[in-house]
Amino acid sequence: MIAGAADKTGEPAATADAAPELPDYKPTAAELKAVKTLESMGVPIRPIAANLAWREANFRVQSPEAGAVEKALVILSGVTGLYELNLGGVKIKDADLANIKGLTNLRRLHLENTPVTDAGLAHVKGLVNLNYLNLYGTAVTDAGLEHLKGMTHLKNLYLWQSKTTEAGVANLKKALPHVDISTGWEFKEVEKKVEN
């Protein structure tokens, strides 16, 4: 259905809250210094497109050593023009995510294949502009999904091989009806049919 179109009852169709447009952004001198420091630590921080100051950080490309991850995330907390953060496959602790809770411009967050649990999602819940969150292969449970209920801009959520249940996913879907939640359960059903 076209966004904003009326359904058969004449009621306007419900649509997900549109994520705010990216405004013009000019990084501060302190932010540019933080970017240089992170790049010297092996964390690529690149503009998301030509002529835009919004950036993406990718810890997955060349993950810093264990002790350096925590230090890098502290420095990253000063990069307020961060649009995307990829921590996929990085050995982070739940407490490390406290360093990103102030990055409220963040739109995409990769936490797949990390040791993140429900406690880590407590730090993520304030990132209300997120529209993509990947929790594939984490220890997140239904209790952790409660932290996501205020994320009205969320469009894509990946929960494959997490500890969530169908009931927990259904509960989140009630709060965020327009989020596309990929659980991987549909693939298990296909596997069962193929095996039989």
Number of helices: 6
Main β-sheet: number of strands, strand sense, barrel status?
A: 7 strands, mixed
The average pLDDT score comes to: 86
Structural class: alpha/beta
Total beta-strand segments: 7
As a percent range, the share of strand residues is: 5-15%
Oligomer: single chain
Span between N and C termini? 37 Å
Give unreliable regions as ranges. 1-15
What is the gyration radius calculated from CA atoms? 18 Å
> Any idea what the shape is?
globular
Task: Bin the helical content.
Answer: 25-40%
SSE run? HEEHEEHEHEHEH
**Largest sheet strand order:** 1-2-3-4-5-6-7
General description of the model:
The chain is an alpha/beta fold and 196 residues long. 28% of the residues lie in helices and 12% in strands. Strands 1-2-3-4-5-6-7 form a 7-stranded mixed sheet. It starts with 28 loop residues before the first helix and ends with a helix.
Short key terms for the protein model shown above:
196 residues; single chain; seven-stranded mixed sheet; disordered N terminus; alpha/beta
How is the secondary structure organized here?
Blueprint lengths: L28 H12 L4 E3 L7 E4 L7 H11 L5 E5 L21 E3 L7 H7 L7 E3 L7 H4 L10 E3 L7 H10 L4 E3 L2 H11 L1
Parallel strand pairs: 2-3, 3-4, 4-5, 5-6, 6-7
Antiparallel strand pairs: 1-2
